[in-house]
Amino acid sequence: MEVDRAAEEVVFTELAAVAGRGEVFSVLSEESGLRSFGADYPLVLVDPVDGSLNAKQGVPVFGLMLAVLDGPTIDDAFAGSVLNLNTGEAWTAIRKQGAWRSGALISVIPREDRKRFQILGLESSPRALKLAQPLVDHSNKVRILGSMALSIAHTASGGFDVFCAPMPVRVFDMAASLLILAEVGGVATDLQGNRIGPLKASLDTRTSLLCAPDEGLHAEALAIVGTQG
Prior knowledge:
Blueprint lengths: L1 H19 L4 E5 L3 E18 L1 H6 L5 E7 L7 E8 L5 E5 L3 E4 L2 E2 L11 E6 L3 H6 L1 H5 L1 E5 L4 H9 L5 E9 L4 H9 L3 E3 L16 E7 L2 H12 L3
Parallel strand pairs: 8-9, 8-10
Antiparallel strand pairs: 2-3, 3-4, 4-5, 5-6, 6-7, 10-12, 11-12
Helix pairs in contact: 5-6
């Protein structure tokens, strides 16, 4: 979409300026693919507009995703940022140092209802909704934002008790938010309980996703998903 191309141009202008100051790195972008600025790593992942269909349709929920990796997998992310392009709110994380929301350390909202999920977040199509039905039945409310990066970030803060993408989605879009989630003690797996971290951070790698801000909520959600089979 034109909005993606325009946003990417702004991002690459800034990254080119960084390279002009002597830094070496590569960039993997949703629009332009892989571009070298003198070294394979660090690798900067860029999704200029995560939620571009929302942007096109005038729905004000979309963001910029940036992640910096020192290796080829999601676990190799050492810095991440998700910027809500409508509100200006920034979510950031540095590996083993913490995660921040608008500059303040993220404090996870405590769960209020011990028997049900207060809010379930979904990345969904009509078919995927059917796959997520056991989780929907266990939830008081459901939210579908249309932006993976923002949805996982809100899960990291406890805004969503659980976030689920029942059908395979791109790992690329998750990289920064999964680091934010990990830094607050959250858990992310596929729907079979396999860790997302070892997956290659490429434009082609896809997986289902089930994540929560703590181990207990994730284990509960995983058990519920397992009842559908």
